[in-house]
Amino acid sequence: MSNEYQRRLALHSMEQYPLLLLRKQYFQSEHFEMESRRRIQLNVKEATFEQQFHMLKVSIFHSDLKNIVVY
């Protein structure tokens, strides 16, 4: 790897870091949690089995996202 490539990669990482941090903070926020639950509760009542199953997978995915660690 050339020094130029490593320098650009480091710069790109530094630019992306604040976005990752903000995204992590949002997924950990209470507002996101309440909004997700509200949306799922509203939709489950008139959803088919396949849709309910999909919503369950999405909620599991979101709970997994909260455990992401940004180094």
From TrEMBL:
Name assigned to this protein: Uncharacterized protein
